[in-house]
Design goal:
alpha+beta; ph1033 like fold; 35% strand; globular
């Protein structure tokens, strides 16, 4: 299993929206960055991810699971763009903020710290464990 981080603006698509989709999940569509798209192409069923609210809250608020591997993004006719489907697994009891992540030496190499604009990014197993600990998961 691999680990990922999915960023979304809560005013556009928030954790509550993801939860409302239930077990069926939802396409993680609209990504128009080649690197983020390529990461989605690497994902496998059952991979886990953090759901991250960007903008004001800037915090990891939930855990999701990949429930459909990469397929054409339904929001475009351009065949260059793929997406995966994700479903909510659990909230993070104590949301982990970007400030907490940046101040933690164990997370200093995290992609979120080094390339905060990338909307889909990998997370190492060690980073996953550390954030789960910080979040009370």
């Amino acid at each position: 299993m691999r680990y990922w981080l999915f960023k979304s603006e809560p005013a556009t698509w928030g954790w509550s929206d993801q939860l409302a989709k239930g077990d069926a999940g939802e396409e993680w569509d609209g990504v128009r960055n080649y690197q983020a798209r390529n990461f989605m192409r690497e994902m496998a069923l059952g991979d886990r991810g953090f759901f991250y609210h960007s903008q004001k809250s800037r915090a990891i608020v939930g855990i999701v699971e990949v429930c459909a591997e990469a397929h054409p993004d339904s929001t475009t006719d351009d065949d260059r763009w793929d997406c995966v489907d994700i479903r909510a697994i659990a909230p993070v009891p104590n949301p982990v903020t970007l400030d907490q992540i940046k101040s933690d030496p164990e997370l200093s190499d995290m992609v979120l710290v080094k390339n905060s604009r990338l909307s889909v990014q990998p997370v190492t197993a060690e980073e996953w464990q550390r954030i789960c600990t910080l979040g009370g998961v």
